């Protein structure tokens, strides 16, 4: 069996700074994509029947 030296990983402060900058950019992008709380209040909320097209003059009554 061959023996090798253990692998050593070295992180520099520059590596950490690059990682933190990338995470900060991702967080900003995620925040920009998230809708504002007031946007939902402006949208008209439809009932289940309206979403299914069951409300209105359809003449689709059962009886």
Description of the molecule:
The structure is a single chain. With 63 residues, this protein is mostly helical. It has three helices and no strands. The protein has helices at 13-33, 37-42, 48-52. The longest helix has 21 residues, at 13-33. Residues 54-63 have a biased composition (Gly residues).
Task: Give a nutshell description of this structure.
This is Anaphase-promoting complex subunit CDC26. By secondary structure, this protein is mainly α.
- Beta percentage is under 5%
Number of strands: 0
> Main sheet?
none
Shape: elongated
Radius of gyration over all CA atoms, rounded: 28 Å
What integer is the average pLDDT?
78
**Multimeric status of the protein:** single chain
User: Which sequence of SSEs, written as H and E, runs from N to C?
Assistant: HHH
Q: Distance between the terminal alpha carbons, to the nearest Å?
A: 84 Å
Helix content: 40-55%
Helix/strand structural class: mainly alpha
Continuous helix count: 3
GO cellular component, one term: anaphase-promoting complex
Biased composition (Gly residues): 54-63
Protein name: Anaphase-promoting complex subunit CDC26
InterPro entries: APC_suCDC26
């Amino acid at each position: 069996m061959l023996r090798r030296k253990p692998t050593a990983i070295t992180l520099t402060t520059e590596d950490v700074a690059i990682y933190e900058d990338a995470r900060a950019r991702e967080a900003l992008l995620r925040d920009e994509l998230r809708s504002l709380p007031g946007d939902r209040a402006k949208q008209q909320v439809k009932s289940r029947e309206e979403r299914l097209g069951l409300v209105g003059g359809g003449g689709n009554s059962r009886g």
